[in-house]
Amino acid sequence: xxFLAAIPYPxxxxxxxxxxxxxxxxxxxxxxxxxxxxxxxxxxADRCMAMSLEDLGSGTRFPISQDLGAAAQGCRLDAxxxxxxxxxxxxxxxxxxxxxxxxxxxxxxxxxxxxxxxVAKTLLAGLPVLIAVRRDFLPAWRDxxxxxxxxxxxxxxxxxxxxxxxxxxxx
Length: 171
Prior knowledge:
By secondary structure, the chain is an alpha/beta fold. The protein has a single domain (4-170), classed as P-loop containing nucleotide triphosphate hydrolases (Rossmann fold), CATH 3.40.50.300. It has 7 helices and 9 strands; from the N terminus they run βαβββββααβααβαβα. Strands 4-3-2-7-8-1-9 form a 7-stranded mixed beta sheet, with helices on both faces. Strands 5-6 form a two-stranded antiparallel ribbon. β3 and β4 form a beta hairpin. The longest helix has 15 residues, at 156-170. The two termini are 14 Å apart. The model has no long low-confidence stretch (mean pLDDT 88).
C-alpha cells in the first residue's frame, strides 16, 4: 500500500469544505494531523474571498490571497503566504503526525513551486500524505508523483478507510 493518496475532483467542486469535513472526522478518531487545509472567508460581497491555509498542527492561519482592490475580478495567490505555510510541514515532521493533509496540488505545484517540496519531504520522512488534485492538474500530478500513489474518490468514508489502512502499516 502506498503512503501517498490523491483525491481527484472536478473543477467547481467545493474541495475546501470536503477537506475541512474530513479533518473533523479524522480528529474525532483521535488522529494527530499535520499539513494544511484551505479556508475561504468572504470579506464582503464585492471582494474576492480571503484565502488562508490552516496549519492542522497548531491552528495558525496563513493568508494566501492578495487583495487586488475593489475593482478586481478575481484573486491572486500570495506566494509569500504560501511559503510561510510551509512551516506546517516542519511541525508535522517534528511531531511525527499520523497523517499529513495538503489542501491541493494546484497551479503553483504544477509549475514546480508551491508546497511541492514539502510534500516530497514529508513522503521521504515516511509520513502518509493525503492531497486533493483538481482533475485538470492530474497530468502534472502524475509527473510529480509517478505511479506509487492511490487514487481515492471524493467520499469521506472511502478516504477514512484508506487512512486507517495506511496507519496500520505505519504503526
